[in-house]
Specification:
The protein is α/β, with parallel strands linked by helices. The protein is about 45% helix and about 10% strand. The protein has an eight-stranded parallel barrel with strand order 1-2-3-4-5-6-7-8, surrounded by four helices. The protein is globular, with a radius of gyration of 18 Å.
Length: about 300
């Protein structure tokens, strides 16, 4: 894929990573079933080894195996984007080289967590990663996990320089979204990273969503984005409103614990296991999830 040649329009599902019951192994059989379900629902792409995929808990070997598996299963079908959310820029650079060799279509790069870099440091981080790969980069603005936001002006600069080809906006702030849309390059694809704000991002000129909730509701998100693309705003609004209680249930505790629970209860994946420090849903949260999804 040519540099910055990645269409983020529509729905890209941020895939969970299924584990064995004891959490020691990746369950690739379940992972394959999940990917096939996404493809059957008509999603436009997938993101592997993001925060929803518990990438922070994977060994280097598991990361490579998971990315390779997802790339192989989606090859010639939909784009496959790999996530890089690490604190050390040198490690991010090396991971970008690996992802490139594995044949992915893009890289989702988060602000380095824990370090709390300045905006200048964030820009230097993205430039270093971009210098190691021809793949398009998607800037992942998620201050809730990274500890610091990428400012609209920084996103604008990175997009105009051609460092980033897209933005996953997960700040939860409509004002930040609006300011970002005003400053980024017209060629930069902005997508929602907050599932409950998908419609708002589309209304502000975004092109789609990278969704955790689409693990369990892929068809609904495809319908929402499809309706908006056809300018059927009433249908898109109705779908977004109807999904809100289920989206909120999927974030009643840390993502991806609720999503994995629903997928396991539905039999899409064998186990709902997450790796420590994430633990199973509390009884009250499990009751809520069961009620909202009828499982």
């Amino acid at each position: 894929m040519k540099s910055n040649d990645l269409d983020l329009s529509g729905v890209f599902t941020a895939l969970v990573t299924p584990f064995s019951k004891d959490g020691t192994q990746i369950d690739f059989e379940s992972f394959g079933s999940l990917i096939e379900m996404q493809l059957a629902a008509g999603v436009q792409g997938v993101v592997v080894c993001g925060s929803t995929g518990e990438a922070a808990t994977l060994t280097d070997q598991e990361y490579v195996e998971t990315v390779r598996f997802a790339r192989d299963r989606t090859n010639d079908k939909v784009p496959c984007v790999a996530g890089i959310s690490v604190s050390a820029t040198a490690r991010a650079v090396e991971m970008a080289r690996v992802v490139t060799e594995l044949g992915c279509d893009g890289i989702l790069v988060a602000t380095p967590p824990y370090n709390k870099p300045s905006q200048q440091g964030i820009q230097a981080h993205f430039r270093a990663v971009k210098g190691s790969t021809p793949l398009p980069l998607i800037g992942y603005n998620i201050p809730g996990r990274s500890g610091v936001a990428i400012s609209p002006s920084t996103l604008g600069s990175l997009s105009r320089e051609g460092i980033i080809a897209g933005i996953k906006e997960s700040s939860g702030s409509i004002d930040a979204l609006a300011d970002t849309m005003l400053t980024v390059s017209p060629s930069c694809h902005v997508v929602s990273g907050d599932d409950s704000l998908t419609l708002a991002v589309l209304a502000y000129g975004g092109v789609g969503v990278i969704s955790a909730s689409a693990n369990v509701m892929p068809a609904e998100f495809v319908s929402l984005c499809g309706a908006w693309a056809k300018r059927d705003t009433q249908k898109a609004t109705t779908i977004q409103r109807e999904m809100l209680p289920r989206i909120r249930a999927l974030f009643v505790e840390s993502n991806p614990v609720p999503a994995k629970t629903v997928l396991a209860l539905r039999g899409v994946i064998a186990e709902s296991t997450t790796r420590l420090p994430l633990v199973s849903l509390s009884a009250s949260s499990l009751d809520l999830v069961r009620q909202e999804f009828g499982v």
